[in-house]
Design goal:
Elements lengths: L6 H6 L7 H15 L14 H10 L4 E4 L6 H7 L7 E5 L14 H10 L5 E5 L4 E5 L6 H4 L1 E3 L1 H7 L9 E3 L1 H4 L3 E6 L6 H12 L2 E4 L2 E4 L4 E7 L12 H6 L2 E4 L6 H11 L8 E2 L2 H16 L11 H22 L4 E2 L2 H5 L3 H4 L6 H6 L1 H20 L6 H8 L12 H10 L3 H7 L9 H17 L3 E3 L5 E3 L4 E4 L5 E4 L11
Parallel strand pairs: 1-10, 1-11, 4-7, 7-10, 12-13
Antiparallel strand pairs: 2-3, 5-6, 8-9, 14-15, 16-17
Helix pairs in contact: 11-12, 11-13, 12-13, 12-17, 17-21, 19-21, 20-21
């Protein structure tokens, strides 16, 4: 069917103007009735954030997503485009996407008055109806609203007070669409004042000349909590005009974190690589541990991007080992996660105690805590008593993490009870390979090292844990010092 090309054709087609908020509400209602997914690819928000966003759109509210970094705020905002119609008609040549039936700019009004039903129209796709701006302190009213353009005035023979001499900013150009501002508190106060004036009254002033622009815009903002950002705040009159404030959060379950990392991490390599399920859990537990660690600034948060980059680095470490040894498939191990410290340290904002210890020490402790928790999820410490006894009786395992799977298995076979413990567990996948067995055995040994039941050797391998050092308590009573070395796994 041929689309209308003029206002007359459009009127004859039965077209009726509709505000963008009513349009989004109508399309959202249809999605809810059909049972379709509202935000595909967004994990962990089905019962928390998504219902609140749905309520805001059904209420025709402008809203703000408030949360720490790495909580999918920008992704959600960009997916709102799917709630717009495929395309809408606009007056051809309009800078502010004038509705042919309700033009708001002087350009469109004069054109309609002059040409009537013969006024040509264009069709604007939904993707072109989304405008996004990252707020920074140097953003001006001119950037968002517009400014007088002397060159345009001179070429067109317009007075500077004429609306046709205005170069419109981002907000008017988002008319009949979605306008999103990320990190809203970073806007200066005077710019925020100009913004809420447009939201409420629909009029603006440019260089002292009043311009009436009843914009039709769905406004969406994102921000970090105000007690986190020291760069600015949302002024009270603007907050009062934002209909809904919606709090986002990090994954609340291990399964949600694993699902997000699986979807977002670049794991589709040319090489044949296997990632055991316990390694996926281990990576997520590193992030969970970081969010609870007192040495990490909780107000800053620990982005989900950390889990994604740790997984990518761990996979790369396994791939590098397999390329050097020409041993495939490459199975990701605990030591590969330990190799991913550079993906952790750069994403942690540390408190004073953490700064004193250093980012790498904190990162190692976080991995050790995650290893210990992963061990506990699959094994009972009592079942590993024979392994600990073997080391306490003088057993030493001298192996390098980069050795071939066959050599590692020979060493693991020498540790009393290690391989039988792993084979009796449910950690090995069906049809497991030697690489899977190596990875599982390594988890047991690293888990016991994290628990300080055995120690990692500086040159690689494991040995018994050091005995407590005897000391004298105050008052002459005997006591014990804790073993030397940082808490957690002792890294070679």
């Amino acid at each position: 069917m041929q689309k209308p090309a003029t206002i007359g054709d459009l009127r004859n087609s039965g077209y009726a103007p509709m505000s963008v908020k009513e349009e989004m509400r109508r399309n959202l209602v249809a999605l809810l009735r059909s049972g379709a997914e509202i935000f595909p690819g967004i994990v962990g928000y089905d019962d928390t954030v998504t219902p609140k966003i749905v309520d805001a759109i059904l209420s025709r509210h402008n809203f703000i997503l408030l949360g720490l970094r790495g909580q999918a705020k920008s992704r959600i905002v960009r997916q709102l485009v799917s709630l717009l119609d495929e395309e809408v008609p606009v007056v051809a040549g309009s800078e502010v996407n004038d509705d042919p039936m309700r033009p708001i700019s002087k350009f469109a009004r004069e054109r309609v008055d002059e040409m009537g039903d013969a006024t040509p129209i264009a069709w604007l796709p939904r993707e072109a109806r989304y405008v996004e701006k990252l707020a920074t302190p140097d953003v001006t009213i001119a950037d968002l609203i517009g400014d007088l353009d002397p060159i345009r005035a001179a070429h067109g023979g317009h007075l500077l007070s004429d609306e046709l001499a205005i170069h419109f900013g981002l907000l008017p150009r988002a008319n009949r669409g979605i306008f999103a501002i990320n990190e809203l508190p970073d806007l200066s106060g005077k710019v925020q004042v100009g913004l809420f004036n447009v939201m409420q009254e629909g009029d603006i002033q440019i260089k002292g000349f009043p311009v009436r622009l009843p914009l039709d815009v769905q406004l969406v903002f994102t921000a970090n909590p105000e007690d986190y950002t020291a760069r600015g705040k949302i002024i009270t009159p603007l907050k009062d005009r934002i209909g809904s404030e919606i709090l986002t959060h990090y994954p609340r379950t291990l399964e949600d974190g694993v699902a997000i990392t699986r979807d977002e991490a670049w794991l589709d390599r040319d090489s044949e690589i296997e990632i055991p399920a316990f390694v996926r859990d281990l990576v997520e537990r590193v992030a969970f541990a970081a969010r609870e660690d007192k040495r990490v600034d909780r107000r800053s948060g620990v982005s989900q991007r950390m889990s994604i980059t740790v997984m990518e680095n761990a996979v790369s470490a396994a791939e590098r080992r397999a390329l050097v040894l020409d041993e495939w498939p490459a199975v990701v191990r605990v030591t590969d996660v330990q190799e991913a410290l550079p993906a952790i340290t750069g994403k942690l904002e540390l408190e004073y105690e953490g700064e004193l210890q250093g980012g790498e020490t904190v990162a190692r402790d976080l991995v050790a805590a995650a290893v210990e928790e992963t061990f506990d999820a699959h094994f009972e410490e009592e079942d590993a008593a024979g392994i600990v006894a073997w080391f306490e009786e003088g057993g030493v395992l001298r192996l390098g993490a980069s050795a071939r799977a066959g050599a590692l298995l020979e060493g693991y076979d020498s540790v009393e009870g290690l391989v039988p413990l792993v084979r009796a567990s449910e950690i090995l996948p069906e049809g497991s390979t030697p690489g899977d067995l190596v990875a599982a055995c390594e988890l047991v040994l690293e888990g016991l090292a994290a628990k300080r039941r055995i120690s990692r050797r500086d040159g690689g391998g494991f040995e018994r844990a050091p005995a407590p050092r005897r000391r004298q308590r105050p008052g002459g009573l005997p006591g014990y010092d804790p073993p030397d070395g940082p808490s957690g796994t002792m890294f070679a």
